[in-house]
Design goal:
239 residues; alpha+beta; Glutamine Phosphoribosylpyrophosphate, subunit 1, domain 1; 7 helices
C-alpha cells in the first residue's frame, strides 16, 4: 500500500519519506531516533516493529539480524514489509512473500527504498535515482525529491492520498515531522508544507532546548534575530 525511502544523511541525520493511497500513512509507517536509526514498516503494517528495532539498533545489533528476529516472531510476516538503517549506515530490508505486486526493495550506501502495490519496479528505481541525483540538496528536500521521482514513475498503482516526512538530527525530539493525511496531490502538499516550515518553524526550533544548550533561547528578541539570520543565510538553509 506504500513506498518509502529511509536514509542517513552525511550530517548523521535520519529521515523517512513515505507516500501511499492510504489515509494518514505518516501515523504508523515511519519511525526514527537521533543517533540510533530509522525504519519504515508497511504493506499490512506492523507498528510494533518500531520499538524493538530502535532499541536493538541502540544496542549496536545489526539491522539484518533485527529484521530476521522481528519477522521470525511475527506470524503475519508474509504480509509485511520492513526496512531499517542504523547509525553506521548499515541497511536491511524485508518484503514478505504475500505482499501485493509490484513489491520489492532496493538498498544502497546509506539508504533503502521499499514499496508494495506499486505501478512497477520503476517506481523504486526512480525513487533511488531521485535521491542519488540530488545530493546537493538539503536532506529533507532530497527525500521529498526522491518521492516526487517515484510518483512521476507511477507511484502507488491505486492512486494518491497521503504522504509524510520525518527527520531526526541531534535531539531526542524530531527536527521535522510533516504529514499530509488526505489530499489529491499529497507529495505536492508535502513540498508546500516543507517550504512553509522554512518561514518560522525551522528557525524557531533552532532556539529550543538542546543537548548543547539545555535552556535554549528564551529572549524573544534573540529568537527573532535567529529567524532573521536563518533567512539571511538563504533558502537552502533548511534541514
Amino acid at each position: 500500500m506504500t513506498w518509502s525511502i529511509i536514509a542517513r544523511d552525511i550530517s548523521g541525520a535520519f529521515g523517512v519519506a513515505v507516500a501511499s493511497r492510504f489515509f494518514a500513512v505518516g501515523a504508523l509507517c515511519p519511525h526514527a531516533r537521533s543517533h540510533i536509526g530509522a525504519l519504515a514498516t508497511q504493506a499490512l503494517v506492523n507498528p510494533t516493529y518500531a520499538a524493538p528495532a530502535l532499541a536493538g539498533m541502540a544496542q549496536g545489533i545489526a539491522p539484518s539480524l533485527l529484521v530476521e528476529q522481528l519477522t521470525a516472531l511475527d506470524e503475519g510476516r508474509d504480509h509485511r514489509q520492513l526496512h531499517l538503517i542504523d547509525s553506521h549506515g548499515r541497511v536491511a530490508a524485508y518484503t514478505g512473500a504475500s505482499c501485493i505486486d509490484w513489491c520489492g526493495h532496493m538498498t544502497g550506501n546509506g539508504y533503502s527504498v521499499a514499496g508494495n502495490m506499486l505501478a512497477g519496479q520503476q517506481v523504486i528505481e526512480a525513487t533511488v535515482q531521485g535521491y542519488l541525483a540530488n545530493d546537493g540538496m538539503p536532506f529533507a528536500e532530497r527525500l521529498i525529491a526522491a518521492l516526487q521521482a517515484g510518483e512521476a514513475a507511477g507511484g502507488d498503482k491505486r492512486g494518491k492520498q497521503a504522504a509524510a516526512l520525518l527527520v531526526y538530527t541531534t535531539e531526542d525530539y524530531c527536527a521535522l515531522d510533516l504529514r499530509v493525511d488526505d489530499h489529491p496531490e499529497p507529495i505536492q502538499e508535502l513540498q508546500r508544507l516543507y517550504q512553509k516550515s522554512l518561514e518560522r518553524y525551522q528557525p524557531f526550533t533552532a532556539c529550543l532546548p538542546s543537548r548543547q544548550r539545555p535552556a535554549g533561547i528564551t529572549d524573544r528578541a534573540l529568537i527573532e534575530a535567529e529567524v532573521e539570520r536563518f533567512h539571511a543565510a538563504g533558502s537552502r538553509a533548511g534541514l
